[in-house]
């Protein structure tokens, strides 16, 4: 499970990040909306923790973007605002929950668990192809396909961005924890694994190479 923290208070964001890491969640921290939009473009998040400062309503605007482009992602607003009207405003803006500061981390973790447990399924279904990210499972025409690890994550990320061209750099940032320590060649290796273990045996095409730009998940169809 991956969580994006959008919080301009450095101490607060660090505590949030450390707490989530201890609980086994992968997470990224955006200190402003521009950074948040960048992360949302390159990565898929199960949940967003959105700080909402007292002096501005701008942070709420990003909720509509999240829900439009990644409607399966839950959003929890974190705010020191105590009035009922603010909570109503956040929820009407599309937030799934509203938690007041100062944060009780035990309560926050329970709410995060609840949203992830009862959130919209991340299962991808396209005709006879089913990709289940939570169970790392692929099923095609009723048969399970043996594809695990990074090749599975690459396939899933491309499938979640169906019909979009995704560059090697974007794939590295989205999937590898320390992308700067690996070479783009690992993407080619992962794509080759997908084609060897999945496309060729099943006689389908799932990923196409777009010269000098990256890769695109294409609708699976019979080659012959």
Automatic annotation (TrEMBL):
This is Homeostatic response regulator transcription factor HsrA. SMART domains: REC, Trans_reg_C. InterPro entries: CheY-like_superfamily, OmpR/PhoB-type_DNA-bd, Sig_transdc_resp-reg_receiver, WalR-like, WH-like_DNA-bd_sf. The keyword DNA-binding applies. It comes from Sulfurovum xiamenensis. Residues 121-219 form the OmpR/PhoB-type domain. Pfam families: Response_reg, Trans_reg_C. Residues 121-219 bind DNA. Residues 2-116 form the Response regulatory domain. Keywords: DNA-binding, Phosphoprotein, Transcription, Transcription regulation, Two-component regulatory system. It comes from the Bacteria.
């Amino acid at each position: 499970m991956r969580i994006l923290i959008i919080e301009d208070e450095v101490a607060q964001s660090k505590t949030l990040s450390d707490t989530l890491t201890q609980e086994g969640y992968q997470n990224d921290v955006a200190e402003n909306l521009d950074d948040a939009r960048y992360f949302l473009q390159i990565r898929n998040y199960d949940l967003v923790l959105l700080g909402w400062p007292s002096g501005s309503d701008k942070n709420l605007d990003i909720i509509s973007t999240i829900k439009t482009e990644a409607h399966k992602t839950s959003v929890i607003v974190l705010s020191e605002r105590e009035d009922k009207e603010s909570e109503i405003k956040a929820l009407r803006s599309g937030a799934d929950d509203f938690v007041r500061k100062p944060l009780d981390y035990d309560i926050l973790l329970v709410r995060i668990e609840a949203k992830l447990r009862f959130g919209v399924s991340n299962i991808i279904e396209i005709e006879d192809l089913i990709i289940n990210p939570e169970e790392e499972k692929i099923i095609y025409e009723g048969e399970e396909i043996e594809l695990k690890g990074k090749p599975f994550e690459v396939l899933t990320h491309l499938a979640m961005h169906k019909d979009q061209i995704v560059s090697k750099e974007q794939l590295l940032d989205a999937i590898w924890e320390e992308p700067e320590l690996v070479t783009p060649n690992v993407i080619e290796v992962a794509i080759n694994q997908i084609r060897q273990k999945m496309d060729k045996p099943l006689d389908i095409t799932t990923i196409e190479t777009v010269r000098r730009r990256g890769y695109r998940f294409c609708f699976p169809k019979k080659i012959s």
